[in-house]
Amino acid sequence: MTKKNIAIAGLIAFSYSCIGYYPKEVFTSLQDEPITCKKKDSIVALYFEGEPINFEYEKVGLIEIQGANYDNDSQVISDLKKLAIAKCCDAVIGIRKGSVEREEGLAFVGEEGFTYKSITYYGIGIRRN
């Protein structure tokens, strides 16, 4: 039993030492108080920069997803939607695409990882009034 626990602890420590292997989620709240949603929508509308917004809304927060090394546009956009749902948003407006340099490798090891350009999507998470 103790060998099993040690093995599990080792796997957990190893997985936490991996840097840049997963998408990075960034959320900055624009609310004074935390938002609680009674029911989370499963569908999030996406409005890219320049698209008209013809409805009233409340800004929830700034949302950004930095993709992992081999992620494509659809994977990063899917992660953007998931983060918006988790933060009680029913739409993301003003979405822009960019790229950012990220490092991939192992933490707490003397070896340097390698740097790659990550696909990034960011916008403003909102709730419709």
What features would you describe in this structure?
This protein is α+β, with helices and mostly antiparallel strands and 129 residues long. The chain has a single domain (20-128), classed as 2-Layer Sandwich (Translation Initiation Factor IF3). The protein is 22% helix and 41% strand. It contains two helices and six strands, in the order αββββαββ. Strands 1, 2, 3, 4, 5 and 6 form a six-stranded mixed beta sheet that branches. Strand 5 and strand 6 (114-128) form a beta hairpin. The model is unreliable at 10-20 (pLDDT under 50).
Short description:
This is Lipoprotein. This protein is about 20% helix and about 40% strand. The protein has helices at about 1-15, 75-85; strands at about 20, 25-30, 45-50, 55-65, 90-105, 115-129.
Layout of helices and strands:
Blueprint (H helix, E strand, L loop, with lengths): L1 H15 L1 E2 L4 E6 L15 E4 L8 E10 L6 H14 L4 E16 L7 E15 L1
Parallel strand pairs: 3-5
Antiparallel strand pairs: 1-5, 2-4, 4-6, 5-6
List keywords for this structure.
single chain; 129 residues; alpha+beta; Translation Initiation Factor IF3; 22% helix; globular
CATH topology grouping: Translation Initiation Factor IF3
Task: Indicate the mean pLDDT.
Answer: 84
**Level-2 CATH architecture:** 2-Layer Sandwich
> Which shape, going by the Cα principal axes?
globular
Global Rg: 18 Å
Number of domains: 1
User: Poorly predicted ranges (pLDDT <50, ≥5 residues)?
Assistant: 10-20
Distance N to C terminus: 54 Å
Protein name: Lipoprotein
Organism: Flavobacterium profundi
